[in-house]
Amino acid sequence: MNLIIALMLTFGLLLTNAVSAATYMNKEQALELAFPDADQIETLNLFLTPDQLAQIGRTTGAQADSALYTFYVGKRDGVVLGYAAIESSRVRTLPQTMLVVITPDGTVQRAEILAFFEPPEYRPSSRWLQQFFGVTLTPDLRIGGQIQGLTGATLSAQSVARQVRKTLAMAQLIAGDS
């Protein structure tokens, strides 16, 4: 009898977690949001050297998960409108996927959560994400610095800040500022 109750509780927890997982936008929708005025969106793959990976770690305090990093470049009449990255990372034990859009001058134009698989109460709000608008990569771009924390969702806030820092560092490689 105890085994049946334990199995029912386990199943209930798994079902609760599955229900709380959400995808808010697919890649095509995200790129349309990132570049509404673009007449062309190109894919740009960065193949990072070990030195570049180490530099990103030193600059951001976040290690790149891979030596391959993909940007999407929005263009209008051949002029670059900006760069967008779509990247997944672990929050606590489950992933989130983010869109970070950066202007050609290296400032954040937008940060959006595209998918979030932790419990919904840990998901940063759109209002909270707006504080990343206009930021650049500085040592103060962190929770407790330039970025306000998120009560009850510290790991989510740190994960978002880390992804924004990493994307800005990668964008600097594109611009040749490394």
Structure description:
The structure is a single chain. The protein is an alpha+beta fold. It has helices at residues 2-20, 27-34, 50-60, 126-129, 154-175; strands at 22-23, 40-47, 68-76, 79-90, 95-102, 108-116. Strands 1-6-5-4-3-2 form a six-stranded antiparallel sheet, sandwiched between helices.
Average pLDDT value? Answer: 86
Q: How many individual helices?
A: 5
Q: SSE order in H/E notation?
A: HEHEHEEEEHH
Q: Low-confidence spans: pLDDT under 50, at least 5 residues?
A: 1-19
User: What form results from the Cα inertia axes?
Assistant: globular
Strand order of the largest sheet: 1-6-5-4-3-2
User: How many strand segments?
Assistant: 6
Structural class: alpha+beta
Cα Rg:
18 Å
- Termini distance? 63 Å
**Biggest sheet character:** 6 strands, antiparallel
β-sheet strand percentage: 25-35%
